[in-house]
Design goal:
Elements (H helix, E strand, L loop, with lengths): L3 H23 L4 E6 L2 E6 L5 H9 L3 E6 L4 E4 L1 H6 L4 H4 L10 H12 L6 E8 L5 E10 L9 E8 L1 H53 L5 H28 L2 H6 L1 H16 L2 E6 L8 H22 L3 E9 L2 E8 L20 H11 L3 E7 L3 E9 L5
Parallel strand pairs: 8-9
Antiparallel strand pairs: 1-2, 3-4, 3-7, 5-6, 6-7, 9-10, 10-12, 11-12
The structure holds adenosine-5'-triphosphate and magnesium ion (MG).
Length: about 400
């Protein structure tokens, strides 16, 4: 005989079961049962609030709750959309199935050892139809009170758009560099062919004039001689500017000669001591590589001049396996090098950024090592053979 009270309890349980079934059906799951080695384990989201869920569902990012061994306890619709599956397929399954072997290996230790502040990593998300998209994963341990066991909260951000804009920006900056080089070349040629020639002619004529003035007209002769000297210096300066814009020695004699000429001229001008170690190259490097290394040297020396207060500069060009390596080291004041942020008190110059971009354009890498009061080193490595 069932009492009225027991009947009411049974009705309530039935209603609960129906509610659970409906929740599972629509994907709004509050509890997940995972088959484990020691029998089924139940993960319940006690008191999951409606408002909280609404927020998670309206996010433009994938949001997940996982066990530390990467079983998905909860996912929002956005994540299911990202991996082109339904919530029923996603929830209860492993997160690993959406990652390559390499990304799995990267994620595993992060899941096991999530610090309080959490961690981030970049992966390629593999959707159920096999398509791949770049994504950023950030994980954080969750407060245990929601679930019956330790869980991890994960936010998955689709990086497809961000990557596309990055590529666009990179292509744009490369176009800018190329047109800047073309323009520099044109101005250099103009300066060299027209202005320097003209100035040289004037120097010769002012020399002739100075010789013509008789020694008896002392002040005039002195003035003519000093005028000729000033003109000579002007011609040299214009020639230097033209060379900096587009060094003909780089085109004619190659990288090593151009590096030697530029560094020795720099050391003379700045009064710093210079140590040069330049490998002998038997063949010319690709024109892009030569120009890149030359421009990086110029930019680095400009920084030495403007910021370092150095007394000694070392410039080395080496062959390292399949790479050509250029290092520029100074013993100046140094700075706190950060990939992202500009050093304190600067408004974020373009020098280091453009060096990096130029190196990347020819498939190379650039490293900046700087220690306060010890000095700064720039280290560029470019593959000798350019990928087609
Ligand atoms: N050799 C160096 N010694 C000391 N500080 C340096 C050196 N090179 C760079 N820095 C520091 O790093 C900052 C960034 O250098 P970067 O070349 O990017 O910009 P900038 O020289 O300030 O401006 P720009 O190169 O655009 O004229 C500099 O402002 C300076 O504080
Ligand atoms: Mg600079």
């Amino acid at each position: 005989m069932i009492t009225a009270r027991e009947l009411a309890a049974l009705r309530a349980r039935l209603a609960e079961a129906e509610e659970t079934l409906r929740a599972i059906h629509t994907g709004n799951v509050d509890a997940v049962v995972i088959a484990g080695k020691k029998g089924p384990r139940v993960f319940t989201l006690q008191g999951a609030e409606h408002a909280y869920r609404m927020l998670i569902e309206s996010m433009n990012e994938g949001a997940l709750t996982l066990t530390t061994d990467e079983t998905i306890l909860y996912a929002n619709q956005r994540f299911a959309g990202m991996v082109k599956g339904s919530l029923e397929q996603v929830i209860g399954g492993s997160f690993r199935r959406y990652l390559s072997a390499a990304d799995r290996a990267e994620l595993r230790p992060l899941m096991k050892r999530t610090g309080k502040s959490g961690s981030k990593t970049q992966v390629l998300l593999i959707a159920s139809d096999g398509s791949k998209s770049p994504a950023q994963i950030s994980i954080r341990p969750m407060a245990k009170n929601g679930f019956s066991q330790k869980t991890i909260g994960m936010v998955v951000t689709d990086m497809t758009e961000a990557r596309r804009s990055e590529e666009l920006l990179r292509a744009l900056s490369q176009r800018l560099v190329q047109s800047q080089e073309a323009e520099r070349g044109r101005v250099a040629l103009e300066l060299h062919d027209n202005i320097t020639q003209l100035l040289c002619a004037i120097v010769v004529r002012s020399q002739a004039l100075a010789e013509k003035i008789s020694a008896r007209d002392g002040p005039s002769k002195k003035e003519a001689i000093s005028l000729r000297e000033m003109l000579g210096k002007t011609a040299e300066e214009v020639e230097r500017i033209s060379r900096d814009l587009r060094p003909s020695v780089l085109d004619q004699l190659g990288l090593v000669a151009a590096l030697r000429e530029t560094t020795t001229a720099f050391a003379d001008r700045m009064g710093v001591s210079l140590e040069l170690g330049l490998v002998r190259l038997t063949a010319r490097l690709p024109a892009d590589t030569e120009l890149t290394l030359f421009r990086i040297l110029q930019e680095a020396l400009r920084n030495v001049q403007e910021h370092s207060n150095a007394r000694h500069v070392i410039v080395r060009l080496k062959k390292q396996g399949a790479f050509i390596q250029l290092t520029i080291q100074d013993d100046g004041v140094g700075f706190k090098a950060s990939r992202r942020r500009a050093p304190r008190g600067t408004n974020g110059g373009l020098g280091l950024l453009s060096m990096r971009e130029r190196a990347a354009y020819v498939g190379g890498t650039l490293e900046v090592k700087s220690v306060r009061r010890v000095g700064t080193g720039i280290d560029v490595r470019i593959p000798l053979v350019q990928p087609a």
